[in-house]
Amino acid sequence: MKNSSMKMRPENTELREALSEAGLRYTAQREAVYDYLCSVYTHPTAEEVYHAVRQRIPRISLATVYKCLEALVACGKATKITSSSGPTRYDPRTDRHIHMHDVRTGEVRDLHVPPEFPIHEQLQAQLENLVRQSGFRITDVRIELMGYFDGPGHGSSSAS
User: From start to end of the chain, where are the E strands?
Assistant: First the structure.
């Protein structure tokens, strides 16, 4: 962990404010869960968060981690990534971005797209004309790329 102290760091003022605005209490457990989410580049499952946060708060329960994650989603400091092929994962990024999902391992990472490539807006604009005929109104576009990560710990990319 980056910071094993239970004192609130200055950057967690945003977390405190977001929780308060959502009518939720700020707790050391919620801070620890949020800190962990922000410290990893993958989007962990609740169980992965639980095992990591237990290093900082040994007596935390899995149920408490789930409740903390739901509070973070409710106050807009995290998003829930659901999948029909695996467990729910959590992401501290709440802006529009693209996910890369390894179908072999279940790992999910962000794809960094330059700002001059507004793929979400372009796709939404093109799809709105198509779906309007069906009486459907698009409120958001989420893009998830399915495939395999290459490299150490990820196996061969030639698997199908």
Answer: 79-83, 86-91, 98-102, 108-111, 143-147
> What type of residue sits at position 66?
Y
Question: Under CATH, to which class is 95-160 assigned?
Answer: alpha beta
- Are β-strands 86-91 and 79-83 bridged in parallel, bridged antiparallel, or unpaired? antiparallel
pTM over 0.90: no
Fold of the domain spanning 1-93: Arc Repressor Mutant, subunit A (1.10.10)
Q: What is the pLDDT of residues 14-70, one digit of tens each?
A: 999 999 999 999 999 999 999 999 999 889 999 999 999 999 999 999 999 999 999
CA 13, 19, 25 angle in degrees (round to 5)? 100
Side chain identity at residue 53, one-letter code: V
96 to each of 13, 39, 84, 91, how far by Cα in Å?
23, 19, 21, 12
Q: Domain residue spans in the chain?
A: 1-93, 95-160
